[in-house]
Amino acid sequence: MAWSNDEDRRPDEDEAEEELDETDYKTQKDAVLFAIDVSPSMLQRPPPARDAGKKKGDDDSPIAAALKCAYQFMQQRIIAQPKDLMGILFFNTERSKFREEARSGSGYPHCYLFSDLDVPAAEDVKRLKALVEEGEDPDEALVPAKEKASMANVLFCANQIFTTNAPNFGSRRLFIITDNDNPHGGDKTAKSSAAVRAKDLYDLGVVIELFPIAQSDKKFDLSKFYDDVIYRDPATEAGSSDEVKTSRSGDGLSLLGSLLSNINSKQTPKRSYFSKLSFELAPNLTISVNGYMLLHRQTPARTCYVWLGGEQAQLAQSETVKLDSATRIVDTSEVKKAFKFGGDYIYFKPEELATLKNFGSKVLRLIGFKPRSKLPTWASVKKSTFIFPTEEAYVGSTRVFSALWQKLLDSDKVGIAWFVARANANPVMVAIVPSRGPGDDNDDNNDYDADGRPSGRVPYLPAGLWLVPLPFADDVREVELSAPHRPPDELTDKMHPIVKNLQLPKAMYNPLRYPNPSLQWHYKVLQAMALEEELPEQEEKDDATVPKHRQIDKRVGGYMAEWKDLLAQKARGLMQHRAVKREAEDEADAGAKPLAKRPKPAAPAGARLTNAQLKVAMEQDTLKKLTVAELREILASKGVSAVGKKADLVEKLEQWIEEHV
Amino acid sequence: MADKEATVYIVDLGESMADCHNGRTESDLVFAMRYVWDKLSATVAANRKTWTVGVVGLNTDDTANPQDEQGLEGYEHISVLHELGPITRSSLKSLRSTIQPSRTHGGDAISAVVVATSMIEVFTKKLKYKRRIVLVTNGESPIDDESSDEVAARLNECNIELVVIGVDFDDPEYGFKEEDKSRAKRNNEETLRRLVEQCKDGVFGTMAQAVEELAVPRIKPVRPFKAYDGPLTLGDPDRYQSALAFHVERYFKTKRAAPPSASTVVSSSMDRPGPSQTQTLDGDLDTEDVEFSGVKQMRSYKVNDPDAPGGKRDVKFEDLAKGYQYGRTVVPFSESDFNVTKFDTKKSFSILGFVPWSSYREFLNMGETGLIVAQKHNEEAELGLSALINTLHELESYAVARYVQKDGVQPQILLLKPNPATEDSFECLYDVPLPFAEDVRTYQFPPLDKVLTVTGNVLKEHRLLPSKDLKEAMSNFVDAMDISDMDVDEHGNPVEYAPIDELYNPTIHRLNQAIRARAVDEEAPIDAPADILLRFSNPPQKLLDKAKAEIAALIDAAEVKKVPEKAQGWRGRKETVKPLSGLDIDALLSEKPRKTISSENAIPEFKQMLSTAADDATVESAAKQMGEIVRKLIRDSFADVLYPRAAENLRVMREELIALELPGLYNKYVAGLKKSILSGELDGDRREMWFRHVVAGRLGLITKDESEVSEVTAEEAKAFATSIN
């Protein structure tokens, strides 16, 4: 999926001023180097489809599938993770190439660096596209070598690429795509030198992700070679299901599809938002948890300024200087932070500000439990944080966490807690809500638990606990409206079949089915502009969020038509009833007061004017006879901002009347 | 809210106000002024021209009021200290010096009310105002109650609210009674109470309560904002006859309130060129009184130009186009490109379908809640929306809708939840935004209810999984710690603990409170946060006492052990690192212990040399070699190209030497490195390496906090990092 790194490092605006956590000082950027095996078997196309199990069009050679994956990976990340690096290295190639500087006889025989580890440019995308789609290979990079490359050498080559191009990246990953589970056969020396080079990579902080391809019915046997090379990611806990998945064609899935899904699951490195946070369940009972932002609103990158005066469009870097009221340039050391206060400034020393922001150390401290039903349905202000136990600070955290998770699910309860995410972060109150996780593949329809309660299974999110920020009293808007409850009636009954027949697929909202249409459109346009391709047409917009109107009409059109008639009839009834009532009231009023005192139709006070009366007043140009206070009252009752001079207010009201009456 | 206000505060400055009573260590005046200053500073902070304030001193040594000037009797020792009008911080400051206890008690409180009343009358004329008089007194000076009926009638006539807050006045409702009250004070209290009771709008209270309530955060009311006014549709009314459309209005139900943000300012009085002679003569410049003024930002733009000095040159803003970055490539977008490629949307609000409540959990919420009601005076919308709300409620369903607030705005997916007048006292739909596909990050986590082994077995019993005992203890604990009915009200009904209307944002209110305090008194120290703001930072003691047994049982069953700080993190596990096969690489490596470190593969070789080192001499040698490599990288770096790599090597060296408890070795090296960098001996100006990478990357001296054996304090390390010698 698509994530911007800047957003990642600064998860929230209000936390922007906060000091960075220890884990943040290393640049939290990701560098991925694809190492693709170019052996004769990788180049071999599968025989034409024989059995029904194979999908039509599954005629990619393993290398073509690998390249297509790399191409898609590059396309996605160039837009969504524009600061992250990517490179492509072929091995077992006849030709050897490493960087421009011609080394004496290349240090890495049979390794071909197709694109160096860097932020990809449009040219890189084009070159890879030409190779993938047109098979353009002017340099004959994809010619297999007669003798195999040494894996130790391949790994060291990768080591050097990472050391020089991504020395201080928080995440560095080597993606190896190969169909050969035993590159060195029985050659023990070659195997152990590869193992040593793999350890080098581990010590350097590079994670090796293997994407094995199994040819036809053969098994890719890790124990033959790769078990000595691959290390478990130090960040994952014991008991993790972080296994190496083999890609193959079959079971209705093409080799490409299978490889794509395996690679996509590693698209973003797992980054925690906070780590080893103390979760205090009770005095003297603390466990440690890591936090993750699994849900995060993705927005298009900001625009930048481009200088077009040179041969090539160039990014203009902006610098800001601060000027005081006398337009003198102010040095950063003179600058202070102060609060506006009635046209004046109130100043606190930095240490005083720090004291003011300090509400104790970072912690998640439980203060009690409530049934989930006690949370008001409107209690939402911002996205939630996922937490998962870690044994790193407290041994036993996982089992306690698991017990709590189980209990909250079973009793449909939530925890209420005080939460300070990082040192000096603003404290918030959160509800701790469990997610059940995707469950096993075989109990897909497990919507209810053993007791018949809804299971709340959210299959696209993992099992764990969520910190749902609760609104503060300050965040709740008082909206005063008069919409008394109407008891259900015939209209309600007749609406049941409409709602029942329009359930979303699998009776849930699965976000994965709804890509953000404006974001996708932006990506498409940007890519077309960058690669100088034809712009997509507005009509070609894919928008899964547009309701399926034809289906709605087909399924419940009849019910809706019938219901509409009933509504019209009921509404007429209500309107007449109200008219009669109003007349009665008017008469009562008229009885109490002398007739002469009844207000003229064009100028009764305040918000009691009906829309029709307002319209008349506008046509007669008598709106301006209303006082400012009355105008304000009317505008406020229409939800229009009542700021400005009288003339502005009249204008605003006229505009409202024109639009709405 | 936006109404105009006119408030006159009458402050008793009589000599008795200087005394302390009832065990307080502050004088009555200081005590009473806590309330008044808070109100005044809140008014200043609001910075509204239409919120006007006047201040009248009662029992002042002097007399200064229009009534007295007109020769009326009984208006002695009453002074108008601040005429009714907008109040600024400077008036606040001058009030601070005038509000001091006097040496008299001859003023009459009711006369002061008359003074205030006429101030309001004169100022507000017949305009729409919220009028109020606030009298604070300890009621010790005599009051003439002869004209109180008349005064009350006049207050009512002018629509003025009278608030009397007395120091140590009795208030049975609040539960305060002064035992040794003087007869005079009792009489005065009675007189004032009667006056208030005669008023249409009146409040009579005791100061202790008023001061206590100051701590209760005041929430800034916000006028409801209508975000959408248009149809909510099911089906497409333009294409299908059957489609439904209700005219609805959408407001915000929640909106995050932000703490006040600090502006960037400079203290202007210090740096300006000295004032001219005449100004110095007539303006008495208070040197203590530093003026702040705002700062403007000016942007300049630069592009790379190898021919320009420094490799960069300025470009004019007018010559720049907007664009986006596509990887390394920048893609200019002209105005027309933006127009052509804009994602075209039309204002709309249409239902996609329905889902059962059980398919939703609160953590799917992506933001603030909206509130949807039918358009006013629209019977069809009223009845239609009501039927939808009732149906959703009866079928335990939510609607999922696509929402485009206005033309050209990005679509959002909203979940519509029915509220048949159960939560707010009116019928509406609440809506919360849901995530799109791009907003979901697919990280893998192991399951919580089982353990999968490498070989693919499923374990149901494991140290990572709770035992039966633990599960049971947890269940009892959760039930015992329930706060949904922890308290009961006076009618014996359960009261929920920590409901949302009692959760105040601690950051906002603490900051606002401190700003107000400092506006009144620049010397004011920073108070500890008010108790009410920290109320929910810990579980209530009552609950902990009640659940004592369950907590103890849970602690027993959990057997949680803290990992000693030193063993935490990656270092603690270092010894056991092995590839999946379990092959002992270290053994393979230690067959031939490493003696040298190459620049190309420095980090792995450094780590490996340390892990096989048998003595300190080897460690020192490794550190020395690594240090030389770092220096060489800096020296050989073309501009800053190799700095990140040098910094990374340095970071590893630092980390490893902390783990080996040899901080001195690193500290000595880094001190030398700094000297080399700043003296320019590493081929030119390498200061950027020091400040951007070493200091900003926190690679300076290892402190005591990081390694117990270090002798460097955090302050020393900071000073070392930033000094330039």
User: Can you list the strand order of the major beta sheet of chain B?
Assistant: 7-8-16-19-18-17-15
Known CATH architecture of the largest domain in chain A: 3-Layer(aba) Sandwich
| Poorly predicted tracts of residues of chain A | 1-26, 237-241, 441-454, 593-606
Question: Quick check: average pLDDT of chain A?
Answer: 81
How many beta-strand elements of chain B?
A: 24
Net shape of chain B: extended
Distance between the termini of chain B: 58 Å
- Poorly predicted runs of chain B are 270-288, 568-574
Q: For the CA atoms, what is the radius of gyration of chain A?
A: 33 Å
The top level CATH class name of the largest domain in chain B: Alpha Beta
Strand content of chain B: 15-25%
How far apart are the first and last residues' alpha carbons of chain A, in Å? 46 Å
Shape of chain A: globular
CATH architecture level-2 label of the largest domain in chain B: 3-Layer(aba) Sandwich
**Fourth-tier CATH superfamily name of the largest domain in chain A:** von Willebrand factor, type A domain
- Mean pLDDT rating of chain B: 86
The percent range for helix content of chain A is: 25-40%
**SSE-based structural type of chain A:** alpha+beta
Keywords (chain B): ATP-binding, Chromosome, DNA damage, DNA recombination, DNA repair, DNA-binding, Helicase, Hydrolase, Nucleotide-binding, Nucleus, Telomere
Subcellular location (chain B): Chromosome, Telomere; Nucleus
Pfam families (chain B): Ku, Ku_N, Ku_PK_bind
Main location (chain B): nucleus
